[in-house]
Write a structure and sequence with these properties.
By secondary structure, this protein is mostly helical. The protein contains 11 helices and 4 strands, in the order ααβαβββαααααααα. It has a 4-stranded mixed beta sheet with strand order 1-2-4-3, with helices on both faces. The longest helix is centred in the N-terminal third of the chain and has 33 residues. It is elongated and about 60 Å long.
Length: 303
């Protein structure tokens, strides 16, 4: 673990232009989050309207509860799903994250290690002060220190740009919508009475929205931005380039055992999932990362 010593490259202090860029990105992500929560509420109310006024009221209450859960607990849900264990300053990953956060002017995030052999990492939290960065055990075993610094800097860039709140909320909502769509489909399929066509249309809409949420609300461009900002934060793109090459190679060989595929957008490399069965084509609809080779080419251009 951590074969290379940390380089002496130190990123320059952010200038006014850099601060303005991050502020613009943060505002845009806040708007996306508001639209996502509002859209979910509108969808639930529209589907509830199929059952009249009482259905609309129940849907509105449910949407309100989901909004609260998504805002305050989506990060905890993500960490719990990955069985993350918080580590302290004595852990090498914590020291790397702490150093990079200080250089970037960010509050100290919590650091977690997840008991998975599939090498990967993600960041979560509704704000920089509530942020957390998590690494799988596989990533800690596979990556050198320089590579881990590149990965940590990428994740901290998501924190600085406030991508994490939007990502977590989108993942939570997509998972709930997918569950509701599946539940509704089997419930009405097993019903002895004739299926209301409007209900089936509503189920299809819910399923379509569940599949489209990640693609529509989580722009792939955010990965390119986080890659570039992470390279600047780490002082060089070399570590991140090498890490992306390794992570991409291993992602196809070691599936990630986690129960919520809707959270795939959180990770630095979109994980291959176990036990997809016939749902593999459906999971492709949730792809939220650009091809790794394109990310690496973009990083090489900033050298």
């Amino acid at each position: 673990m951590f074969e290379h010593r940390r380089g002496n490259n130190v990123p320059r202090k952010g200038n006014q232009t850099g601060m303005s860029k991050h502020s613009t990105i943060a505002v845009a992500n806040n708007v996306k989050t508001a639209l996502l929560l509002g859209g979910m509420t509108g969808l639930f109310v529209a589907v509830g309207a199929l059952w009249g006024t009482q259905g609309m009221i129940m849907a509105l209450v449910f949407a309100g509860v989901m909004n609260v859960i998504s805002w305050f607990f989506s990060d905890k849900i993500a960490i719990a799903a990955m069985r993350g264990r918080e580590v302290g300053p004595e852990h090498p990953a914590h020291r790397i994250v702490s150093d990079l956060a200080a250089r970037a002017g960010l509050p100290q995030p919590r650091v977690y290690v997840c008991p998975h052999q599939a090498p990967n990492a993600f960041a979560t939290g509704r704000s920089p002060r509530k942020a957390a960065v998590a690494f799988t055990e596989g990533a800690l075993e596979l990556l050198t220190e320089d590579e881990l610094r590149g990965v940590a800097a990428h994740e901290l860039s998501h924190v600085k740009n406030r991508d994490t709140l939007t990502s977590c909320i989108a993942a939570t909502i997509a998972g709930v919508l997918a569950f509701l769509a599946q539940w509704g489909f089997w419930m009405f399929r097993g019903s002895r009475r004739d299926v209301n066509p409007l209900v089936m249309i509503a189920v299809v809409i819910v399923a379509a929205v569940a599949a489209a949420v990640i693609k529509a609300m989580i722009s792939r461009s955010r990965e390119y931005v986080a890659d570039a900002d992470g390279a600047a934060m780490a002082g060089s793109p070399t570590g991140l380039i090498s890490a992306l090459q390794k992570l991409d190679a291993y992602a196809g060989r070691i599936p990630l055992n986690q129960p919520n595929p809707a959270q795939n957008n959180l990770f630095i490399i979109e994980p291959m999932m176990n036990n997809l069965g016939g749902g593999k084509a459906l999971m492709n609809l949730f792809a939220s990362h650009p091809p790794t080779e394109k990310r690496i080419a973009a990083l090489r251009s900033v050298r």
